[in-house]
Amino acid sequence: MAGSLNMLLAYLAAWITLTTILWKLRGDKENSRLAISPLMIVLRVPSSFKVFDKLRSCWLLGLAFDLGVIATFLLMAEFYRITITRLIDLMRGHTGGVAPIMPIIPGVTISLETFLYLLPGLSLAIIFHELSHALAARYEGIKVKSTGFLVALGILPAAFVEPDDKELARAPLRSRLRVYAAGILANIVLFAMVTAVIMLLTQSGAYITIIDVSPGSFAEKAGIQRGDVFTSIVVNGTSLSDVPSFMNYLMKLRAENGGTLSNVTLVVVFVKPSGENITVVKPAAPNDTADREVYERIGIYLGDAPASLVRSGISGPTAHSIFVILMLASMINIGLAVINAAPLFVTDGAQILRDIAVEKLGEDRGKLVASIISTMTLAVLLPNIQL
């Protein structure tokens, strides 16, 4: 973890140095498609998205945008339920229950490897979120000035769509709400689609696949190889059918033996789909050994892989990677939808709340009420964030 963090910090330092030099060399260039600052690079592409005008006569699309507005309010309520429930638990001293909210910080809250798995789903979520805003704007007859992509800190992708501010402000409230909620709707739809694909791939079960084998380990000596797949693992007579069960069993066994497995003999039988078995024996460490760490593990890294992908000829590690990418894509889309629905100053939910408040209370009072609600929402959110 420390090595990954050091690599990340070195990369960020190089990125900031390079972009700062380019920023100084370019100077301020107004109306430039390429904008460079010490933290990010922005590429702006003029586009009116007139191709979407062909869909303006589709009433089902309008209905979908209305459902997006309703879904935004439902997710807003869910956001408050999650954050307030956990806040109450924290005040009572309960650390279990609802999981904390963890921002995506590569090398800090998630590993760099996990971030790479997450990147395809994150990029797809951002792109479709912004395209949906453009689609809704054109559906409501609102011009789109431009679109663009940016990379922040060299690792975080983002995209944006810029509707014409004046036309958006003059549009009826219903039209504005549709435009704001369209991005959230896109993330909900992507979440549903990816989840459906996951369910389809896993309906025939999953195999346990060997992601890697430690050189010289007990597993390697027994003949376990990277890419092997198994239907189950039997540890000291206990049959386990997936990786979480296997890991939980070892954690329990370790806890029962003073926090170590070095003094425990493990007989691990790997059951192949063909019925063939490979047995790995990890003996207890001899009393006179100087390196008890060798006897702490059998030397394998495991992952679950959809059986349907493996049967189609895809290797176990590749099938596992596809599964992880899909799972993270599903999680990131629903997570972005919930966060964007919350009224947090710059989110879509905040824009919806502000425009409704201004419509009902007048501009000054409406903006004041919206700001107060956003501040209170942020106060509820912050204690729920865990780094």
UniProtKB/TrEMBL annotation:
The chain crosses the membrane at residues 6-25, 58-84, 104-129, 180-201, 321-346. It is found in: Endomembrane system. The lineage of its organism: Archaea, Thermoproteota, Thermoprotei, Desulfurococcales, Pyrodictiaceae. It comes from Pyrodictium delaneyi. Keywords: Membrane, Transmembrane, Transmembrane helix. GO terms for cellular component: cytoplasm; endomembrane system; membrane. GO terms for molecular function: metalloendopeptidase activity. It comes from the Archaea. GO terms for biological process: membrane protein intracellular domain proteolysis. It is a multi-pass membrane protein. This is Peptidase M50 domain-containing protein. Residues 120-380 form the Peptidase M50 domain.
